Amino acid sequence: MSNQYLEDRFHDECGVFGIASHPDAARHTYLGLYALQHRGQESAGIISTDGSRLYQEKGMGYVADVFDDETLSRLPGNSAIGHVRYSTSGDSSLANAQPIVSKSWRGPIALAHNGNLINDVRLRHKLEADGAIFQTTSDTEVILHLLARCPTPDLDQALQEVLRQVQGAYSMVIQTTDRLYAIRDPFGVRPLCLGRMNGSYTLASETCAFDLIGAEYIRDITPGEILRIEKDQLHSSFLPPAPRHAHCIFEHVYFSRPDSTVFNKSVHQSRYQMGRQLARECPVEADLVVPVPDSGMTAALGYSDQSGIPFKLGLIRNHYVGRTFIEPKQSIRHFGVKIKLNPVKELLENQRVILIDDSIVRGTTSGKIVEMVRSAGAREVHLRISSPPIISSCYYGIDTPTNEELIGANKVVEEIRDFTGADTLAYLSLEGMKEAVSDGQNFCSACFDGEYPISISLESPQKSLFELETSEDRRQGVADRREETEETEQQTTDRRPQTADQKTG
User: Fold this and answer.
1) Superfamily covering domain 12-242
2) pLDDT tens digits, residue range 102-131?
3) CB proximity list for 379: less than 8 A, separation 6 or greater
4) Where in the sequence numbering do the catalytic residues fall?
5) pTM for the whole thing?
């Protein structure tokens, strides 16, 4: 049975890695993917080249499950790319595992992609009408088919022509027998960075992959840049610029590792500042600040430092839970959460606890954690969230629930508090979150405000899962419910100390 605790989250999307001019390219790619495992646990793959052909190994599961000495020995060459996947477009199957390889008149080309193309359905139908035969259901394969059909012989120019046809979010690495490419969409939605290790250039979704292999971070791939690495030289060309940059702010809220630099900013520092700002906006009298591990850890440190309330590890996470587990025949209440988290009763008993988490998606897990803390003896449980309420689904490469399942899209804060069972609940404001990342105007925050920087349509494979609704409609609906419950919130003020002047996002 799948671990239901993990389902009440936005799912990490994908991670990519690449390295050129290194005699042990495949093994370094393996290590890079290991560092990026948090970005996708569904499948993993590596493509290497010895200058004459491409070699491929991929499989379902964690990086450590897919690769060993034997499989890595089958990946010779001094250049390689790799990918860890969680599907946001296409089925969960080995066929959709990346990198994906195509063989055409251009020679073999391998592509690994993090993001989501929002017009791939239309492009796929057009290609199929022209006789194309697809081997996968992934939007990534659309780009390879377009490349194969593009008559322009120069690959750099062909990439320019093909990428002008696609819309959406993409950070990708491409491997040919003699070239390695790194490409970001003009909005720069997904991260991708360049590093150097001795005489080798490296590419990764996050800098934590560089730390593991001893590479030095140089810079981010610029939004709209097509970077070619060939014979130890860098060559850049650029797609037409977007009206603005739109870096995914959820990378700093949750997805990226806190030890990474993403979009030229420290993820740890962003989350720490979110916690400090949350304490300023949403104070409450309490005895302990307790993070929901691991995602709430850094924000809880910031909240504790700003408020002066002690930080305690009142919940312990079991890091050795696999992708599946077998439930006992005798039903255990909240088994899925208990196998992942366990309270430290000695710390929580008779205490007023501030529980810090990064977000609430459906609310089911939050309610179970609140109950767990209360069952451990906590006198009060005050839930604080280091981001605003999530009101919209993402269509740029993150697997999100339907709008109907997003509790923030359908309930006001007091209703969510009642659903979770917390004594009080407060969110970080949208303005506070943007202030914490220090550069809010360059970020996409559509999941929090419904303002989509890239035009979306019904044809998107992600969007077709969700009911279309304008951001204004959604905001108005929540505002109407807020007005209806205003009187109820006033009546419950005695249950929510110090919340009268708090901003709740």
Assistant:
1) Aminohydrolase, N-terminal nucleophile (Ntn) domain (3.60.20.10)
2) 999 999 999 999 999 989 889 999 999 988
3) 350, 351, 352
4) 14
5) 0.85
